[in-house]
Structures are given as C-alpha cells and as structure tokens.
Sequence to fold (285 residues):
Amino acid sequence: MEILVITGYSGAGKSFALDVVEDLGYFSMDNLPPSLLEKFIDLALEAKNINKVAVVMDTRGGVFFSQLPQSLAKLKEKQIKVSILFLSAREDVIVARYKERRRPHPLGDSIVGGYRKERRELENIKNQADYLIDTSDLATNEFKQRLTRELSTKDQAKLRVSITSFGFKYGILQDADIIFDVRFLPNPYYIPELKKLNGTKEKTRDFVLKHEQSQEFLDKLYDLFKFLIPHYVDEGKRQLVIGLGCTGGFHRSVAITEALGQRLEDLGVQVQVHHRDMESGDRYE
Fold:
C-alpha cells in the first residue's frame, strides 16, 4: 500500500491535484480528518485491489488537522509507505484566486490574514514534505505535467534535486531551499543577436558559459552540493529545491541552471530542471 497525502495552502490547487492523481490510478478522498486516516487505510487494505491511495488533508479539518503527524506515524509503524505532497503559492496569487472566486478564506475573514495564519500553521508539515510544488506561475496543464512527472519518477533516487531558474524582478522563488544570484555574470541582453534568444539556445548558452567566472562558479557549486547532498540524505531529506536567479530569468539563470543540472547528475541523484520565467516572450533581462 502506498499513501500520498496532499496538503498545503488553501487556493494552491489541492483539488486539482487530487483529480490528477485519480487519473494516475490513485484511490482518492478529499478533506479526510487525520483521525480517520488509519481506519480509511484499513478499509482500503481489505479491498485487496487498491494499492495506491491519495488523500487531501488540510486546515479545513480545524482542530483535527493537528493530529496529522500522529496519524502518519501510526501508518509508518505498519510499514506502509507514506509520501507528502505540499502545494504552495505566493500571497498575491492566493489573494487573486480567492477574489476571482469570490470566496472567503477558510481561516479568517481576511484573505491575507487567513493565508498568513495558514502559512504559520503548516510550516512544520511543509518541512516534512516529499514533494514541494509552488503553483504560483504554473498554468493548469503545466501543473499537471509537473505533478505527473514528479510522481512517475519518485522511486528513482533517495533525493530529488529540483533546479529552477527565475527572474528577480518577477519575485523570488518562494519554495527554494537555497538561492543563488547569477547577476554577476556577463549579460547576453546587451548583445543584439542574443537579446531574444533564451539561455537554452546554443549561442546564448555558449556566451554565458565561455567566461572563466561562469565555469569557476559551476565548479564551486558542484563541490558544494557534492558535500551537502550526502548529509541531506542522511537527515532524511527527500527533495532539495535550488533557485538560480538573474534579472529576468531569461538568459543567464537559464543557461547556468541547465549546466548545473547536467553536472549534478554525476552525483547519483534525480535532477529536474525548470525555468519559471523563461516562456513569456517579453521577459528579457
């Protein structure tokens, strides 16, 4: 039996995620109180033909939600594999989503107040998450592809490393564990023939990577993560999110993200590369 617990911020996409995992073959349940999780799993085990279960549990459960850690511990004592998917989004995005739907936040009269309260209450469970996805800048089809990819490759490595490029002028990467600023590198924006070519294009990539400081930076990052990753694994960390930012998330951070991803694969971890701000055509640096 494999259990996927879906939780996170209200408005971050938990209901949509549940629909996605249903399509992936999970038997699912929405808004299940943690106190009923063990009984629900026992019923699923009796059914014999159910081997993957997904449940959404969040702050809608009120005081019952605080029982989640104990409920998960009981399942693990039974040798049942439990994973946590945590969905987050920026405050401004959550506010906009609730205003569009004209619905109140479940934790307060104020959307902002409810979001901030929920963020505090979920901090501990967020730190325990096996999968952490920020849906702020993901269209529904991108969210579905990202989630499907995450779940379909979850057993390939002890630690999954997600490397994401972004543009500082569009906001910092909220779900990153570690962030690096690559705005010290020479900028292709000022080269006319490179201005509209993103960092995945050969000419732009070659321009960014040909400089001595780029190669030295990548060497130092490789040495850093070669040291860090075994310790993260020893501590039970399942996902490491690395953010690489430049001005617009179009040239330098994209090229460095791609190069770092290739290097870290040598460390025997599962590496996924994402580019948050690259696709919008007007987001040149």
